[in-house]
Fold these 3 entries.
Entry 1:
Amino acid sequence: MLAILAFLLQSQQNVYDGHLRQLDVRLPRIETAAVRIDGVLDEDAWRQAAVLTGFSQYRPVDSRPAADSTEVLAFYAPDAIYFGIRAFESHGSVVRATLADRDNIGADDNIQILLDTFNDRRRALLFEVNPLGVQQDGVRSEGIAGAAGGGNAGGRFDGIVDLNPDYVYESHGRVTPWGFEVEVRIPFKSLRYQSGDTQDWGIQVVRVTQHTGYEDTWTPVVRASASFLIQSGTLKGLSGLRRGLVMDVNPEFTSHVDGAPAGTAYHYGHLDPQLGVNLRWGITQNLSMTGTVNPDFSQVEADVGQVTVNERFALFFPEKRPFFLEGLEQFDTPNALIYTRQIHAPRGGAKLTGKVGGTGIAYIGAVDDNAAPGAPHPVFNLLRLRRDLGASSTVGLAYTDRAAGSDWNRVLGADARVVWKKIWFSDAQFVGSWTKDTPGGRARSGQLWDVTLYDLTGYSYGNHAELVGISPDFKASSGFVNRVNVVYGRLFNRFTRYGKPGALLENATTYILLRPTWRYDDFLKFRSTLEGSIEQQLQFTLRGGWFVTALWQNLHQRFDSAEYGSYQVDSAGTPVPFRPPPGLYNMWGALGAISTPNRAWKANVSIGYVSGPIFAEGAEGRALNVFTALAWKPTSSLRLEAQWPHQRITRARDGSWFSTADIPRLKVEYQLNRDIFFRYVGQYTAQKRDALRDPRTGDSLIVSGSQPPEPQFRNDFLFSYKPTPGTVVFLGYGSSLTEQNPLSFRRLSRTGDGFFLKASYLFRM
């Protein structure tokens, strides 16, 4: 460190020490920055750069000096901002760095640069690199998105990170005997920012070290705060930023051929070549327009399987499709009023995103493909506005419209979030929906309301109290509201104790959670709950990045006879109406889990045993849930990941088997270099269920509906060349097989397969 200090004194660079709260940074402007992005900070420009140092630990324990020192050098040129990182490692050769595909470096050491280009302390662009310069990027948001569901009273209080957006920037790094060194160049053409000639940006830098499990920040970040980004530093007086013309043209070509059984033979269809184009125009520094015609929505990897045997409601899957990803975070609303996966396969669309003054603007208009030949094409209009108030409070408006022929659904909602005394916030959302979806029928209306009475984020104590009500006729065809006619209550309390420096136990947290649920009218008439639980979670962070969790719960469930109106009991060959039990009470459950540190090997294992309802029978069951995930990185280029969720449910009354679900999944990736990788994903989905029975008599239930799908063994192979976002070549093959006896791997028969090709090129003007 003495040598470093001597170098800084000799070069007379401006040093900003986060630990000393020197948080207002004035970057030097270098008109002609002759810097080669090669991971070696040897150019003259770096000797003129500002130096950000004095990092502090913020996870698992905040306000402690960082275990290892970090320096961030920064300056800007007329067309880009530059960062150089020296990350020192005092524990020997323990730097974790691998070649990886973009957005897949979460298990490596990494540096995260957060640029709040509108300086609103609510949303920041994330530029993350590992020691080899491999990139991971996205948006870190807080406020409404980060607060939803009581996140602040829970473990992480710093909002949510969306890794789907991709930005064009340069980075390169290298591992050194003393740690690692990285260079980053971010062109202003890749950013949206304020329209003023001179402006201030928020900045935060985070360092993640895998062998300790620590996260350090340049500015001191304390846990006792309702906002993470409000604790960032500031880049002061940036001026003369030149983006030039921002026009991205991204033509793409796709083609595929699919095969399927045809009697005793197997038949391949015709090639289906398709041309499409995406166009992005930076209207101003703070507004972007994106248009698409015939966009490619080919799947290059299946969604991760989820157990659905004993689920009553639809499960959420994240958006992955390129057209929707840029600016997607600006469509966030409480209770997901906008869910772009409802637009299945648009023929064309347009999107406007950005910020004018203190108002964020996001709009999507799209014409979707029709569900069947001759059916009308659904037309979507989705609008989200959010206005900043004060330091970190907001008010927002959301409007969605989906029309298909004479059917339509419209949703209008308003929301607000108020932060008070720095560690408290309250928020509210009020929404109305209007729907006409029956021929000749009348429109019906519904309501959704969500009120967070209070949320406290303290150092050792946190709490959250919230009520969410959704009326029976509420419908959001452009959103994801998977249950109606209920009122949820959410009451969380958190207690945290911190270990002393060097102790084995670094952080111990317990949560006490109350989750009552009422039928909508029952809540308004002060009647008893429909279901609910009381739960306690214990979480332990151990030195070296180990994580242990334990949970117990007690729950109850009432059954609504109206939901079983179509059920009949086969009583000695005579169908009679089915009467479900009125309710189940005093059911219990427990779970234990352990997560190992990120090393060459990593494991996550959880085992739970729960007494809970079997919804399809209106009965009590016993569920054994086991989840195992293993990751192995034998070299810097090869990754193997395996996971196996297993669930077995038996009936409580006699111990008989009800259902089994197994979804093993294997992913193998070989990264030839930063641009080229090969991937195989194999996933076997096996979910089976016994015939339904009356819980009182054991007689068969007569129910219309289908059994879980047949076992499916899905295999996907992919070659990927991806030098920059938007310029890609994908060549893949996928096949689906099935068999009579799950997981026997005997007499597998192919139910379908296909080859596909995608090529696109990003022209940036």
Entry 2:
Amino acid sequence: MPRRTRKFLPTCFAALFLAALAAQTAPKTQPAPIQDYIRKMWGVLTRSNRNLAQAAVDPKFQPLPNGRWPVYVPANEDARLIEGQLRHEMAPADFPKIEIRKLPADTAGLKEQGLLYVPRPYVVPGGRFNEMYGWDSYFIQVGLLRDHEDALAKDMADNFLYEIRNYGKILNANRTYYLTRSQPPFLTQMLLGVYQRTKDRQWLADAMPAVESYYRFWTSEPHLTPATGLSRYYDLGDGPAPESVSAERDAQGLTHYDRVKEYYRTEKVTDYDVGEFYDRKRDVLTDLFYKGDRSMRESGFDPSNRFGPFSVDIIHYDPVCLNSLLYLMESQTAEILEIVGKGAEAGDWRKRAADRAEAINRLMWDAQDGLYYDYNFAHKTVRRYPFLTTFYPLWAGIASKEQAAAVARNVAKFERPGGLSTSTYESGNQWDLPFGWAPLQMIAVEGLRRYGFNADADRISQEFLSLVRDEYGKVGFIVEKYDVVRRGTDSSSIRYGYQSNQAGFGWTNAVYTRLLDGLSH
């Protein structure tokens, strides 16, 4: 890719949010011990009906012309009842800052984006992400349970059950522009995490219809690929992603999509048929490009070159990460059925898990490279792009001892001074080299531990922990992503996606304590 660096301009609301967060956490002399900071941040990052005026603010958009932020309630809910409850819970001066609206039956043409109502408190990641995210919330919940914030951990699981029942799925996040997609599925892990504390079997039993509904979302077309029996990411909406158009502009005012077109005009792409995604004669991105772009965002890895430039070819792949998570969902649903006294139904779920594991090992394992790759079902081949998702089958327990050992021998491909880089290729995307992200450090480390590679797990943990700790000592807060090559937080090398590095930061906070607790003593 061409080596061009551009500065991104955050919206005024994003800048204000980051300034407020920095003011709460920036050290005057010496920052508080890092674990004290992490415990404090659970409260700072919590949103609820009581502070809905703060939760409704979206750093990626502007408020309504009247200065209010819209809050949408589900079409099947009583909007007047919810409004009455909110008036009771919110401070009188705060309620006029929001505008309660009922979600229309057809949301495709929704022009004024807003927050989607959920009933319980939740923790946001931080920075420009002032809403409850799909896969962030699992890692955040891990940290909450570790710090004995059990009620808040349960609230987040309850909100996801509410989303399934009222919005059709767990959403990418609770904003209207995320209604067309989900995010990597961690629901059953979250439910079992709560159950291990509460031992509330009735709550677990009541959750089962939502679990089954969400499972059908991932295992029915268009997410299902019938030829393999596996699943893919596939956003149900069309056109540019509104949040990208609104909040991912550079200093010249160019959007992510403008920069993509420039790349297609000037660079040769051999990873896929560019004609499917870019009309060179008209200099426009195709409808299929936007489908791929949105689906890449459903994966959570937005963006990388994992599925070719900008990952838009993701729609032709069964990803190893998604299918490993669905294997866990099937296995854990069987476990839940055993717990709630429906063991006779568990066998079908275990068979689904076994069938999926067999397909993952048959289609995605590359014995020559000793790595798991994503499977292109259109061309019946894997894409040899080393990515940290190769550790998902270890984390899930799908890999054999021999396969796990082969992956462990490849740790050096990813290992850098600050931990594990997400990929081995520097593409200018934030989910590629040189950046490392907390959730993948956790999955890789715990996958290695599962198969007995504790020395590797300890070393990688120490590398990432020391990086986070060193940077925290300099600035007094924890951020979203880290340059594991140069051991820093400078993200100015990012050219595709958003360049800023968000402060807070939910999943990094959680993974820091998880890795620390996991160290061999």
Entry 3:
Amino acid sequence: MIPFDFVVQGPPVSHQTKNKQRLQAWKQTVRQAAQTYWNAGDIPSTEELTVVVTNFYENAAPDVDNIVKPIQDALIGLVYVDDAQVTDCHTKKRNIAGAFKVKGLSRAMADGFVMNSDFIHVKVIASSNFEEI
């Protein structure tokens, strides 16, 4: 059900990695993490969507534009029918040791902060509600 958010523990794998096995394993990790938050009876959305990805890291983080595609691919058939439905994508990286405010802390994001390690927070909303982010 949209809006939907979840977290994935660990640093992301760049779409540009030369290690394709590692990339496929990362996509599977993302999908499994999403499945733990997705209601089993919900069907994939067919509406236009916005995806917001925040990489909370401690030491180093890949370029934000290189982490989005594997995450979007992992959600096909679970959260949405096809990633062509994604009309907007916003990516951020934040040093987890830094100071920042979190407005509207979701259960998923709270789970990420208690992991005490690098994590990715992914939020999927209807594109018509983008201003609510």
